[in-house]
Amino acid sequence: MSIKRGQKVPGSKAPLSLRIYNHRWFYVMFAPVLVFIALFNYLPMYFIKYAFYDYKMAQEPVFVGLKHFEKLLKKQDFIRAFVNTFELSIVKLLLNTFMAVIISLLLNEIKNLQAKKAVQTLIYLPHFMSWVVTASVFRLILSPSNEGLVNSFLVNLGVINKDQMIYFLAEEKWWRPVYYIVNIWKDTGWGTIIYLATLSGISPDLYEAAQIDGANRWNQMLFITLPSLANTIIVVLILNLAKIMNLFESVFVMYNSAVYKTSDVIQTFVYRQTFGGGIPNYGFTTAVGLMKSVVGCILVLVCNYASKKVRGRGIV
Amino acid sequence: MNSKKKAKKIKLFPIFNGLLFFMICLFIIVPLWKVFVDSIDLQTSYGMRLWPKEFGLVGYKVILTYESLYKPFLISCITTIAGTFLGLTLSTLGAYVLIQYEMPGRNIFSFLLLFTMIFEGGMVPSFLVMSKLGLTDTLFAVILPLGINVYNLVLMRNFFEGIPKGLFEAASIDGCSPMGTFFKIVLPLSKAALASIGLMFSVTFWNDYTNFKIYIQKSSLYNFQQKLRNLIMDGDTPNTSEHISQNTMFSAAVMVAILPFMIIYPFCQKYFVKGVNIGAIKE
Q1: 3-class SS at B152?
Q2: How many C-beta atoms surround the C-beta of residue A77 within 10 A?
Q3: Which entry of A3, A20, A272, B46 is 20 to 30 Å from A141 by CA?
């Protein structure tokens, strides 16, 4: 705020040109940010026009109208990927939230501060490991040979025989449960941070008053803790619902061609169509991506509206 | 009778809770522990063993002397350092400008940033932009697009909003330019935010796999994540004269990828949590 001596304080009443002149250095400082979003966020939006073209790298784009959209709505693989995206994201989100709430409630009951800190440090850890590392770790322990921890364990328990090792990551009926469990392993701990912050914000007076009224611990949880948490839970769910179309890396590093039926999501479908070999038709894959972006945009706006209703403040 | 029962219940719960958390911790740690044990165990047929039978570091020796892992490691270091620096620069600059409430056009700038959270071009148009700019197969393609993170920028802005306005006024009365105020007052007061957001950026860049997968085809520019993935999933294994099993080698590679972070993690964990809580105050 460069105010020269003797000059009027530039409030909203000062003339626009003076206000702009006074803020000139701020525009300079913001310029790099603008350049970055123009290049990497807005220019791709302009390139969405190729969704209406046939476009293969070496050739000139040919305008084809809505051809790609007609094609993809008839394409079984696309429909499957679309449904899978919703199913995987939503089940994952609900499971992770449920587990995070339960763990926060129980963690809040640990009275030994050092033990609590230690547990927290440990359960946050997997959040910082990349999906590649996570997938590698689980591939090693789920390996369908007698080197894999889980299969050996099942053999020792007598659940399965030595010659019936389970291919957890390559069997349609196992892939999804494994995916959900890996997600719980990786992100539940991190999800507890926000609930623990809410829990530590609940006034102790409430509990005291409840105790005087004869409420036991269970009642206190039911009538004080949970209602206080409910708002946070709803907000977290709304914020995350807006992102459900963006599922990519976690699936990409864990799936393989044997389980496309239960694991393929829109982003992995786009990736395979574009970079999976052969000459890609960028027009078609742009159209698939556009469908995803539009649905994602609608979801964000709906969630934003819901968020405004719930907490009086939107997401964006 | 009734009061006796109650007293017993209250005593039982902490034990139950303790046991439960013991199991939760086991659930988190056992997969990692198992990989660690396998990485230092020279006996094959590992099975359920949670302690090495024949201790040896040959797995690490093979991985650390595997030449095609040096360069990916270096690439990861370069992109992480450059990316974190870029990310911090852009988010502090952007956040500082967005708290200038009197600035004409501030709302437009906010909107331009937030709109990118609502709608995006998608994977293929982004790839086309990169290839038309001639950035594919260069490290710029994996550093630049992650440099702007609107969520981190908003966290930063929330933090800056907490700085008393009086300080800005005092600085400008003393003749400090906007840039001077930024460097001499805002940044020194925001060390905690810089640390936490810088850490978030560095984790993002260190763990990046998707951008490399999309924009980088040249194997000489692979980062460590990509190399690790190729090693374990596609059996792109080093030739070695040592007699060790693939499992030992893979486990050692995974440990090399996470050990550096696991060593510094306990020291910087509080900054991560602080970063999340800066967001939570306003969110």
Answers
A1: helix
A2: 14
A3: A272
Q: Are B254 and A140 in contact (CB under 8 A)?
A: yes
3-state DSSP assignment of residue B77: helix
Chain B contacts of A147, Cβ < 8 Å? 38, 44-47, 245, 247
Which tokens in the block code for residue B277?
Answer: 């809580």
Could you give the C-alpha distances from A274 to A14, A231, A270, B204, in angstroms and in order? 54, 42, 6, 24
- The full DSSP string for A251-288 is HHTT--GGGHHHH--HHHHHHHHHHSSS---HHHHHHH
pLDDT in tens, A60-76: 888 888 999 999 899 99
Disruptive mutation site among A5, A12, A30, A111 for chain B (greatest number of B CBs within 10 Å) = A30
| Cβ atoms of A45 and B115 closer than 8 Å | no
Closest CA to B72 of B148, B139, B141: B139
B222 three-class SS: coil
CA gap B31, B54 in Å, rounded: 20
What's the DSSP call for residue A159? S
Residue B226 identity (one-letter amino acid):
Q
φ, ψ (nearest 5 deg) of residue B46: -75, -50
Is the pTM value of this prediction over 0.90? no
Question: How far is B32 from B44, CA to CA, in rounded Å?
Answer: 18
Note the helical H segments in A14-112.
16-22, 24-37, 43-46, 67-74, 76-108
What average pLDDT does chain B have? 85
B108 touches chain A (CB under 8 A): no
- Tell if the CB–CB gap between A152 and B47 is shorter than 8 Å: yes
- Choose among A47, A110, A153: nearest Cβ to B17: A110
Mutation for testing the A interface, residue in B17, B34, B89, B123 having most A CBs under 10 Å:
B123
d(CA A212, CA A204): 13
Whether B122 sits inside 8 A of A316 (CB atoms) is: no
| Of B252, B215, B264, B278, nearest in space to B62 by CA | B252
Cβ atoms A72, A286 nearer than 8 A: no
Report chain B residues whose CB lies below 8 A from the CB of A111: 14
Residue with tokens 């951008």: B211
pLDDT tens digit string along A92-143?
999 999 999 999 999 988 888 899 989 998 999 999 899 999 999 999 888 8
What are the sequence ranges of the domains in chain B?
14-55, 63-280
Q: Tell me the C-alpha distance between B119 and A300, whole Å.
A: 9
* Facing B258 at nearest CB: one of A32, A129, A197: A129
Task: Return the DSSP state at B214.
Answer: H
Which amino acid does the sequence have at A150? V
Degrees (nearest 5) of the Cα angle B36, B39, B42? 135
Cβ atoms of B158 and B281 closer than 8 Å: yes
Superfamily of domain B63-280: MetI-like (1.10.3720.10)
- Walk me through the domains of chain A, giving residue ranges and CATH numbers: 66-311 (1.10.3720.10)
Gap between the Cα atoms of B230 and B232, Å rounded: 6
* C-beta separation of B206 from A130 below 8 A: yes
Task: Verify whether the Cβ–Cβ distance A128 to B261 is below 8 Å.
Answer: yes
Q: Quick check: helix, strand or coil at residue A170?
A: coil
Query: Percentage of chain B surpassing pLDDT 70?
Result: 89
